[in-house]
Fold this sequence. Notes:
Layout (H helix, E strand, L loop, with lengths): L1 H18 L2 E12 L2 E6 L4 E6 L2 E2 L8 H12 L3 E9 L5 E7 L2 E2 H7 L4 E2 L9 H16 L25
Parallel strand pairs: 3-6
Antiparallel strand pairs: 1-2, 1-5, 2-3, 4-8, 5-6, 6-7
Helix pairs in contact: 3-4
Amino acid sequence: MIFSLRLLALALASTLAAAHAETISGEVVAIAEGDLLTLVDGARRTHEIRLAAIDSPGKTQDFGSQARLSLSALALNQQASADCRRIDRQRRAVCVVVVSGRDLGLEQIRSGMAWWYRDGTAAQTASERAAYEGAEFFARIHRAGLWNSKNPTPPWNWPDGSQRPY
């Protein structure tokens, strides 16, 4: 019975998340982490947005500060367009965010400031998946950012288990 209720709740949440698809345009006004930003739209509404299909190091992890600074350099005080495809557990929009024609999640992966989060790929197109996978491969072989560490620990494997992105 409990399993059935959980399954029903998960199905309902997935349906509601899929129904949330929207595009938000505005200015990036804050960067909380290497995969989390705040955007203010034209109506002055604030949107907390998690970048889709990536996971950057958490604040307490190696490269956490660098990942945040990297995203700041790409997006802070810039106009952005967010293609939002779902809502995460913390009620944040999960979006592909573009600034000046550049996909911020892809750029974070390419520079070694985030992992391609394969559990978050269901909403990605085939070309997005290929681009993200290629960017991570490029970062790994060039030992960019966190890949310069001997054994970088992804946030979803962090010891306290609280860093799962979705």
